[in-house]
Amino acid sequence: xxxxxxxxxxxxxxxxxxxxTEVVAMRDVTVKIRRGExxxxxxxxxxxxxxxxxxxGLINPPSAGRILIGGELVMDGPKALMETRSFRRRxxxxxxxxxxxxxxxxxxxxxxxxxxVNNWSASASxxxxxxxxxxxxxxxxxxxxxxxxxxxxxQRVAVARALANQPSIILADEPTAALDGRLGRQVMELFRKLxxxxxxxxxxxxxxxxxxxxxxxxxxMEDGVIRRSETDAMRTISSPVEDDQKERGAT
Length: 251
Known about the structure:
Blueprint: E1 5-16, E2 23-34, E3 38-42, H1 49-56, E4 64-69, E5 72-76, E6 79-80, H2 84-91, E7 92-95, H3 107-116, H4 122-135, H5 151-163, E8 169-173, H6 181-198, E9 201-205, E10 217-222, E11 225-228, H7 230-236, H8 240-250
Parallel strand pairs: 3-9, 3-10, 7-8, 8-9
Antiparallel strand pairs: 1-2, 1-4, 4-5, 5-6, 10-11
């Protein structure tokens, strides 16, 4: 039953190797991410961020712990409780550092293909793809090839493709690394728009600290351990202005 959470993890752990070669990439990670919440995951290289993302994306199973998506238990330790490939196509959207658009397809065809692999008809998939390109502000580039698009436009098409099947989760791995500050912020704000308007849970792995005000929650990861950011915790405490407004409202 859907309990309002897009993602829940309980004691998520990932170990590579054994004995003297054992490496704990992720240790006892327990988080809850609500539908409509946009989350940043920070941390140095090798801290376990990508391990976490690929685990909840059902690509790289954990060694221990549980993963629930939309309230449904999908991973119990390394054991998948459903057919992961079809589940990913239906419920999870991925956005990467590079747009990874198919170069010989147009922008709209790059979105359509995500629908057609799920047995949408050509006409229905084109309508849905155009709706998404319009929503993301690149419908005027629908018939252009990726090579003719700017970096920001390419990422918007990639986000449209990730949204094609109305996933409950978007997982983004360094989606602004190849963009300048202005375009990077536009993409981050786009994720917030998607989360808040579409009710999608969004997790963004990033090294970019310039747009952290866009996120509802910020987590930091180090040595495989995840914790809520102290700066983010401070943001969740009502500000002096808010406190003053509350006091005036009470009088």
